Amino acid sequence: MADAKRTNRLILHKTVVMVGMMGAGKTAVGRALANRLAVPFRDSDHEIEQAANMTIAEIFERDGEPFFRRKESQVIDRLLDGTPCVLSTGGGAFMSADNRQGISQKGVSVWLDADLEVLWNRVRHKDTRPLLRSADPKGTLAALYEKRVPLYRLADITVTSRADRTLDEMARLVCDTLLETRPDVLEALE
Ligand SMILES: Nc1ncnc2c1ncn2[C@@H]1O[C@H](COP(=O)(O)OP(=O)(O)O)[C@@H](O)[C@H]1O
Ligand SMILES: O=C(O)C1=C[C@@H](OP(=O)(O)O)[C@@H](O)[C@H](O)C1
Ligand SMILES: [Mg+2]
After folding, report:
1. What is the ipTM of this complex?
2. Given CB 3.0 to 4.6 Å as the disulfide criterion, which of 74, 79, 88, 136 pairs with 18?
3. Region 127-140: what's the mean pLDDT?
C-alpha cells in the first residue's frame, strides 16, 4: 500500500464523501486523504462560506438552518457531478435522505466513527459551530450524537477515529480500506 502511494499509482474512480459528527475529523482527515490520493479536496462548509462570503455561524444567524441545509445539498450535488475528489461534508449533511441517496449513487460514503469524549475534546475549544452555541454544548453534542449515529451507520464504510490515531494514520486507514473493499472506487495500478 505504501508503495502504491509512493509511486503515485492510485486511481480514484468515485468521489469519497466523508461523513460523521462534528469533530470526527472529516475536514482534517479528508484533506490528508486527498493529499495521499493526489486528488482535489473539497469541503462543503468551505464552499458555502466562499459563495456567501460569510461564515457558517453568520449564515445560521442571518438566514437560518433550513437555508444552510438547502445550500449544503446544492453544493454536495454539484461536487458529486464533478471529477472524483475527496468531499468532506458538514456533520448534518448525511441526515438528509436525498443527500444520502445522491452520495451512494455517485460516490462512496466514509463514516469517521469517534466516541463522544473524543468528539467533545476536539470541538470544545472552538466556537465556530453554531449548533454548539448553547447553554450546555456537551449535552447538545450528546443529543445530536444519539440522534445521528443510527444514520451514520448507513454509510458504505466505517473507520474508527480513536484519540491515539493521527490524521495521517486515519487517511492511510481510509485509503487501505477502500483498496481492500472497493476496487470500483479506488484502484492501485501495478
Ligand atoms: N485523528 C486526529 N488526530 C488528531 N487531531 C484530529 C484528528 N481528527 C481531527 N482532529 C482535530 O480535531 C479538530 C476537529 O477536526 P475537523 O476535521 O474540523 O472535524 P469535522 O470536520 O469532522 O468537524 C481539528 O482541530 C482537527 O485537526
Ligand atoms: O453537525 C452539523 O449539523 C454541522 C456541522 C458543521 O460541520 P463540521 O461537522 O465539519 O464541524 C457545519 O456544517 C455546521 O456547523 C453544522
Ligand atoms: Mg468540517
Report:
1. 0.99
2. 88
3. 97
